[in-house]
Amino acid sequence: MSRLITLTTDFGSRDPYMASVKGVILSRCPDARIVDLSHEIAAGDIREGALFLAAALPHFPEDAIHFAVIDPGVGASRNAIAARFAHFIVVCPDNGLLTLVSRNMPILEARVITNPAVMLKTISATFHGRDIFAPVAAALASGTPFSELGPVTSKLVTLDLPTPERLSTGVIRGEIIHVDRFGNLITNVRRATISDSKPREFRAGKYTWIELSRTYADAAPGSSIVLFGSADYLEIAVHLGSAAATLGLTRGDAVQVLL
What we know:
By secondary structure, the protein is α+β, with helices and mostly antiparallel strands.
């Protein structure tokens, strides 16, 4: 049985882009098991794609092949790569998409995709998702050795993503790094960042919270809370509402945790 291929892009669903990617995969690997993860990553938003991959990929079966294409630099000098982790492979542009995945688990080997045999014969300058990454994913699912994709590389692009800073005053300073579709404000402060400390106060913008909630329903409808979400990032949420709209906060705004 062919290996699982997952698809994560900013292509949306109204245009023929994703359909043509699937057509290439199935033409080269007819029994491929294809799973759509998301095609609603904001257009060209590599940071959002990196966050999505880090949260989603660890939950898939071992040996999955993950096709991830958010590629505003298509046709430019960035490389097409495949990265092998302990339990899966990602094929993607080398533009920082793997920044957060690789923080949580090491890349065992990465290769620049250069072998013409694993690509389409004609390569469009504007659609490497179809012409390079799709046939590569199909080739790997069909048993092509990882070593045949191209030369090894140890220099991958990483995003300059903010990391929380622990100040000598007992304050952890972070920021909002994502707003999800529910309007929840996801910060870069992880549960491990706070460690065993018991926070006494949380601040963002003009707002202050003195309790850490366990679930979204811990507050009355319309009230705001802070809690750790399913990916273990500190979130600001409004029960049955949008924290982004209610509080007027957005990506890049500062947050503080007082210990």
